[in-house]
Amino acid sequence: MKRSVTIELLEEHKNATFYTLRFTDEADSEFEKFWAKFSKSHSVDCHLLSYWMERIGNEGTSHPFFRDEGGVFVKAIPFQPSNLRLYCYIIERTFLLFGGGGKKNTRTFQDDPILNEQVNFVRKTGNKILRYLDKDKIMVDGNKLTGKLTFDIKL
Questions:
Q1: pTM of the predicted model, to two decimals?
Q2: Could you tell me if 69 and 76 are in contact, meaning their C-beta atoms sit under 8 angstroms apart?
Q3: Nearest residue to 145 (alpha-carbon basis) of 19, 11, 28, 14
Q4: What is the pLDDT of residues 107-122, one digit of tens each?
Q5: Where are the domains of the chain?
Q6: Could you tell me which residues come within 8 angstroms of residue 38 by beta carbon, excluding any fewer than 6 positions away?
Q7: Are 89 and 77 in contact (CB under 8 A)?
Q8: Among 47-56, 65-74, 90-99, 140-149, which is the least confidently predicted range?
Q9: Under a CB-based contact definition with an 8 Å cutoff, are residues 3 and 147 in contact?
């Protein structure tokens, strides 16, 4: 199944710019849906996520703040012990693409259909962005991504 997705600016920081994914037929981004679902029921974990996001923004994406998940560029935060996972994709050492995530109740994300779907979505979208960067369909302009930020992705 193909769906149209838009890459949207989430936050700009000193050493990293955060983007999120939004399906064009939905009002909320994947990050907004994650936050709405977990910010009250998992407030301690979400506070920890906010802390790590701020730190990553100030110190950059090359620091080992992440859990390795599903490939070289696919990561999860928080780094510290937590059952909540927010999946992201590192692009060009300056950009971090946030997808969704969820509560980890299994040994690996692959064992949970929801988390596995989230990781695969972030991976496929991040890989497509890298291909678009190589073909100059998406460009880096300072600390922003420009160009074709809406495209179809096969899920």
A1: 0.92
A2: yes
A3: 19
A4: 888 889 999 999 999 9
A5: 2-149
A6: 45, 46, 84, 102, 103
A7: no
A8: 65-74
A9: no
